Amino acid sequence: MLDAAVRVFGRRGYRAASMEEIAELAGVSKPLVYLYLNSKEDLFAACVRREAVALTAAVRAGAGDPEPDVPVDRRLWAGLTAFFAHTADNPDGWAVLHRQARTSGEPFAAEVAAMREEITGFVTSLIVTAAREAHQDPALTARDVAGLAHALVGAAESLADWANTTPDVTAREAARTLMRFAWSGLGTLVRDGGRGPRG
Asked: What is the mean pLDDT of residues 168-176?
């Protein structure tokens, strides 16, 4: 039922989607849909929540657990590749998260914002850990790199939209594009521990 709902919401949008169409695609009766999920709003919220959890899990699994011998740029690369692979493999789910939920009201937008904060926090921790290890500087805080992490996540979201609508762009190509764009700044932070030029 949720698979059918994600497909309809992702392709038609929250407003235009109908419970009848979702029920028909799922092969169940409309009353059964209402029995499990009381309203169209509840069904959409369940879709947003499921897709957010799946995307976050894909990024974390891609980046892997911290290992002493694995440099942060390799973990970041793997996480980005997993992100782009997931959004490419689940275009309707990505549309639900990136386009529909953000513009369909506060409860849905809040779910997406929470997902984004979790991913941004994860990216922040990767960069902080790398910079601390490179400079043996335990005083470096998440705030020192939070802006870069937010910029990187925002760029990844925008690039996923481009990659998913541009023929023959692979997840690895999208990840490579973003790493080329971002790692000069992130690499500088890791190298100088955030003590570069101040504007």
From this structure: 93
Query: What average pLDDT score do residues 42-47 get?
Result: 92
- Separation CA 158–CA 98 (nearest Å): 9
Identify residue 10 by its one-letter amino acid code. G
> What is the chain written as a DSSP string?
-HHHHHHHHHHH-TTT--HHHHHHHHTS-HHHHHHHSSSHHHHHHHHHHHHHHHHHHHHHHHH-S--TTS-HHHHHHHHHHHHHHHHHH-HHHHHIIIIIHHHS-HHHHHHHHHHHHHHHHHHHHHHHHHHHHHHT-TT--HHHHHHHHHHHHHHHHHHHHHHHHSTT--HHHHHHHHHHHHHHHHHHHHHHTT-S---
Q: Could you give the C-alpha distances from 97 to 16, 17, 100, 151, in angstroms and in order? A: 16, 15, 6, 18
- Residue 198's CB is within 10 A of a number of other CB atoms, namely 4
115: Cβ contacts below 8 Å, ≥ 6 apart: 52, 53, 55, 56, 97
Cα→Cα distances 37→20, 43, 44, 84, Å? 14, 6, 9, 30
Greatest mean pLDDT among 35-39, 67-71, 106-110, 112-116: 112-116
Catalogue all structural domains in the chain, each as residue range(s) with its CATH number. 49-192 (1.10.357.10)
